[in-house]
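quick one before i forget lol
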Amino acid sequence: GIFARIWKLVKHFFDKGTRDKIQIVGARDTYDTLCEYIDPEWIPECYGGKLRVGTNEWCEPVLPRPAGVIPEDLVQEVLSTWARIAPSHKSL
């Protein structure tokens, strides 16, 4: 395939250690190659595994979008709870 041809051209720009970590495989070999490193329970169904998130075989996140402005009292409650349970995290 095209990716294999591109890899043959660009792989020389990477050191051997990096090259050894990259595999370009065909569609027929994707599942078997993934199974060498990942338990089939964690491979998405679209690649032949058993993992499904909701109704999405690609395991894309299914998160609801905010319906509008988040109420300020809810924001404050989340921030105060975060400060109480994780006082060493000052990122908020």
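fyi The helical segments are 2-10, 16-19, 30-35, 72-85.
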